[in-house]
Amino acid sequence: xxxxxxSILLMLCITDSLCLRCPEQIHLxxxxxxxTMVVMWSIDIQIRxxxxxxxxxxxxxxxxxxxxxELPEWSSNALKYIHKAEVKNLKPGRRYYYRVVALDDNEHAxxxxxxxxxxxxTNDIGKPQKYLLYGDLGADADxxxxxxLEEEVASNNYTAIWHVGDMAYDLTSENxxxxxxxxxxxxxxxxxxxxxxxPGNHEIPGDFMHYRMRFSMPGIEWPMPLTKMWYSYDIGLVxxxxxxxxxxxxxxxxxxxxxxxxxxxxxxxxxxKRDKRPWIIAMGxxxxxxxxxxxxxxxxxxxxxWVKHGLERLFHAQGVDLIIEAHEHSYERLWPLYDEKVYAxxxxxxxxxxxxxxxxxxxxEGVNWMRRRPEAWSAFRDxxxxxxxxxxxxxxNHTHLSFEQVSAQDNSLIDKFxxxxxxxxxxxxxxxxxxxxxxxxxVCPPLIRYVYLIIGLALGMLFVIFVGIICCFCCWRRxxxxxxxxxxxxxxxxxxxxEHYLVEGADxx
Length: 509
Ligand SMILES: *[C@@H]1O[C@H](CO)[C@@H](O)[C@H](O)[C@H]1NC(C)=O
Ligand SMILES: *[C@@H]1O[C@H](CO)[C@@H](O)[C@H](O)[C@H]1NC(C)=O
Ligand SMILES: *[C@@H]1O[C@H](CO)[C@@H](O)[C@H](O)[C@H]1NC(C)=O
Ligand SMILES: *[C@@H]1O[C@H](CO)[C@@H](O)[C@H](O)[C@H]1NC(C)=O
Ligand SMILES: [Fe+2]
Fold this sequence. Notes:
Bound molecules: 2-acetamido-2-deoxy-beta-D-glucopyranose, fe (ii) ion
GO molecular function, one term: acid phosphatase activity
Family: Belongs to the metallophosphoesterase superfamily. Purple acid phosphatase family.
CATH superfamily of the largest domain: Metallo-dependent phosphatases
Distance between the termini: 102 Å
Largest sheet: 8 strands, antiparallel
Keywords: Glycoprotein, Hydrolase, Membrane, Signal, Transmembrane, Transmembrane helix
Number of strands: 25
Strand content: 25-35%
Organism: Potamilus streckersoni
Protein name: Purple acid phosphatase
């Protein structure tokens, strides 16, 4: 009895002294297979951990060990140890309960998290599925969207959340403290539903290190390598693709074509199964088009439309139904279009990709205002009232999908539309990606650095021509203002005068 009491006291001591904040920031994502769920968390000490789980909250009879990654030194304010556990062989369409437990050297539990729960994917492929979706969410507890997302997830109506890039502003800020705060803010819902991500420009600092460690996505090793921050995942009637637009904007551009050929291969395979899984939905952070009043990647036509340049032809050729983007802090929906050309002003059997930009979840940078005049491709736009809004995507059946943009401030519906597609498939028919006659959409467009090189060379040549013209002009002036012949053939003593004269002449130009 005494010994027992002593050991409990000792345990409390260990717990208190070793670990002040742990384990926390618990969140989920889909595993490589449908029967697997990934659980992740952070902790401030080096200690072994496991997930205990089961189908009843009172009987967590199974366990799964975790692997650990250590955040680098420069993240000194963040909890250092990030854990990932895979909970495997789960039954489809069931609710599971789990908690995270830290173990001492004798495999005794020293700290336990509270119990969370999730539902596994069903085998019924045709069942309607709903998703929550947004980009650009900062780590501020006052943003109304956090409360709203918790409410939405608690309704058990959703299959997953898709966060299409830009989180926390930034995960690395305050030496990692902002990242911890963001992960704490999403925990109330991200511990109950898969939190699926794409990298955005705010994930770039520190070589995407925090993004690559704090999240783990299906089909990618962990921590996620720079060579593959993209993935696809089949759920029900949808083939989801998450791609990285950041390959075009960071030194990660080495992987522009790695990603392109991965996407090509993935899309060709997805098209072979389109009768069973008709919808293809792709997500990436920076939009190809937008009508915001700034000089962003999607607004400037000439220099910076790299995502459009890199991927539009491929997505069009392979018949991606819907492209979801963010980055602009507003909401915009486009008519089906390809290469600036509007194909229809309805979503009744679109013959080109439909784009939706939903990057207004809430962040320190505020709203991005729209330009006064929308282009012909802009079907609906909202800047002011879109602040703190998010998307709801519903896959109804083989032919019908709906998208809603909802305000977290007053629950009002900002926009709603349906896409009806009776004949899913590539928008360019009868193209081949094999052999010498392969279609241009199957070839990775030239890298950004080559285009920069060409622009650089062109500017260099312009400069040389400009300098040449100036020189000629000077020579001409000089020859015109030359003094009588005797002046040129002076003896050395008078040379000083000559030079003096030239300087004066130059001043006049
Ligand atoms: C942990 O790492 C080992 C070895 O790399 C790997 O086989 C295992 O799948 C990993 N487990 C998790 C949960 O990632
Ligand atoms: C998460 O799951 C736990 C355990 O079932 C539950 O108590 C909590 O209300 C759930 N939260 C949400 C947002 O679904
Ligand atoms: C869940 O979805 C159903 C069907 O769309 C809807 O009637 C219900 O109100 C939703 N529940 C909540 C809590 O949002
Ligand atoms: C698909 O869903 C739409 C909208 O709910 C409905 O009108 C249509 O009849 C459904 N199609 C099939 C084949 O069930
Ligand atoms: Fe962004």
